[in-house]
Amino acid sequence: MISVEVSDAVVAVRACTRSTVPAGCTGCGHLSTWCHSRYARRLSDVTLAGRPLHIDLSVRRLYCENTTCPKVTFAEQVPGLTVRYQRRTPQLQHVVEDVGVVLAGRGGSRILRILNIRLSRVAVLSQLMRVPLPPLVTPRVLGVDDFALYGDTYGTLLVDATTRLPLTLWEGRDAEQLGRWLREHPGVEVACRDGSLAYRQGITSGAPDAVQVSDRFHLWQGLSRRVQDIASTHRGCLPAALPPISDTAPATVQESVENTTEDTPAEHHARRLFEAVQALTRSGRSHSSVARELGLNRRTVSKYARARTWQEVVRRPPRKFSTLDPYLDYLQQRWDEGQHSAKILHEELQIKGYLGHYQRVKMAVAPLRRGLPIDEPRERPPSPREAARWITTHPHRRSPHINDRLPRILDHCPELRTAHDMVRRFAAMLDNRDATSLPEWLDDLANTGLAPLTGLARALREDRDAVTQGITTPYNSGVNEGRITDVKLQKRIMAGRAGVRLLRHRVVLIAHLRRRYADQPTISPR
Questions:
Q1: Contacts 24+ apart (CB under 8 A), 259-268
Q2: How distant, in Å, are the alpha carbons of 227, 332, 455 from that of 451?
Q3: C-alpha torsion sign, points 19, 23, 26, 29
Q4: For helices 451-462 and 464-472, what crossing angle results, to 10°?
Q5: CA 460 to CA 485: how far, in whole Å?
Q6: Which of 7, 34, 268, 302 could crosslink 63 through cysteines, CB 3.0-4.6 Å?
Q7: CA distance 391 to 385
Q8: Who contacts 277 (Cβ-Cβ below 8 Å, separation ≥6)?
Q9: pTM
Q10: Which of the 8 DSSP states describes residue 374?
Q11: Spatial contact of 390 and 241, defined as CB atoms under 8 Å apart
Q12: What is the pLDDT of residues 378-416, one digit of tens each?
């Protein structure tokens, strides 16, 4: 018997199970119709027409007719409607769990409140943590990478590179934890990682038969950073990228370097700090005592102490594009025609589409009032990061602007020319998936006489087998990087206050949740 009552606030359904239908014992599964008594269960279901749905269900308590069963009585369960010790229907329980996986505590509670399901954030998290993790299957291809957990603390994430699903994560990135996990889950044949010594040792101890692959992206990233270090050391060569001022009176690079190294306050400040830090550290003082004496941060002192020249640490803010630059020719024209009012000039520029402030126009015409030419936008030399990006960019993907300026730098700086040649040789190995010239390239890298490249050659030679696999095989850590981006997203959703256990639960479950809904067919509206 079923009855339905509908009100403005709730939909109530009253139902009763049939007395003649046998029910299976929850202990032994034996069917029984011997009724002991009845009691009422109040269940919550998903909303109906925007109203909460409550089900008052009268169920039987029956005797178990199996004499060997330890249960004397049992309560009958309605498949698809009731679960033992549960006051929510399975469908509602799935909604609560999925919302908790996607949005965690407060966000999940707010969404459920919109759906007229009232649960606190603590209840949502409690239901989330009760969801069992899917069974862990040892992957054939394992991806290992680290991520910033909080502050200076890092974590390790393991990913199945075949299914692209995360397996687990933990705090720390030491070799012992990784080796222990691999010994507990034997069967890994290929392990993709970065150049970390800890992960290399962990894989060697936990899965000695696994083929280790040093990821191509991390190899290229490491080489790019070394090129940037070289560009920082030889930043005095970077003004050579600028075109000559005129064909009749070209400015020499030396004059340009002198002008760019002594005029700006930032460079004067960097030189002064560099000389002070170097003088104190050469006398045997510790970095902490130097930091206390100069009133600097210890990391700043360490940076200046490691630098070989003050040009390596000078800060050069890039020139910002001004919205007034396209209108400078018009301003000069109107000034020559006799219009010297900045207010009127600003109004005319607004008609032409200029959206900037009047004050910027006033400052632009200020040199004209003193009989000086208007300040034309001047191109600045490339920063070390830009120069490194020019060198590492494939020649076919370089813009005409880069193709015009990069050869000038390389012709002026033999060190950057050497770095460029080494980068292009390594890029050819990656493009062709051919590592036969790797030993020769490492020898040439070590003999360049450039400290950053020499250190890189030493590190790659120690990990030569994995580097060879990274160049020649299709395995890589691209899946790891995508999953780490997902980990960072989940951390931001929880405002960085989630513990490792909750973060692991959400990262693993949300990946399987997406996969489950992605596999479902989409029903298009008619």
A1: 260/381, 261/236, 261/311, 266/314, 266/315, 266/316, 266/317, 267/310, 267/314
A2: 11, 50, 6
A3: positive
A4: 90
A5: 27
A6: 34
A7: 10
A8: 290, 294, 296, 301, 304, 305
A9: 0.70
A10: P
A11: no
A12: 667 888 899 999 999 999 988 888 888 899 999 999 999
* CA-wise closest residue to 242 among 379, 355, 112: 379
pLDDT at 496: 67
- The three-state secondary structure class of 328 is helix
Rg of the Cα atoms in the chain: 35
Q: Which residues pair with 12 in a beta bridge?
A: 5, 54
Note whether 502 and 491 are within 8 A (CB): no
d(CA 481, CA 484): 5
**The pair of three-digit structure tokens given for residue 275, joined into one six-digit string:** 């000389």
DSSP strand pairing (153-160 vs 165-171): antiparallel
Residue written as tokens 């012992």? 176
Round to whole Å and give the CA distance between 290 and 183. Answer: 47
The 3-class secondary structure across 345-366, one letter per residue, is: HHHHHHHCCCCCCHHHHHHHCH
Between CA 439 and CA 464 the distance in angstroms is 9
**How does pLDDT run across 167-218, given as a tens digit for each residue?**
999 998 889 999 999 999 999 999 999 888 999 999 999 999 999 999 999 9
Q: Can you tell me whether residue 340 is helix, strand or coil?
A: coil
- Alpha-carbon separation of residue 243 from 231, 380, 422 (angstroms): 19, 11, 26
Question: What is the number of other CB atoms lying within 10 angstroms of the CB of residue 65?
Answer: 14
Query: For residues 302 and 54, what is the distance between their CA atoms, to the nearest angstrom?
Result: 66
Please spell the DSSP secondary structure of 279-327, one letter per residue. Answer: HHHHTT--HHHHHHHHT--HHHHHHHHH-SSGGGT---PPPPPPTTGGG
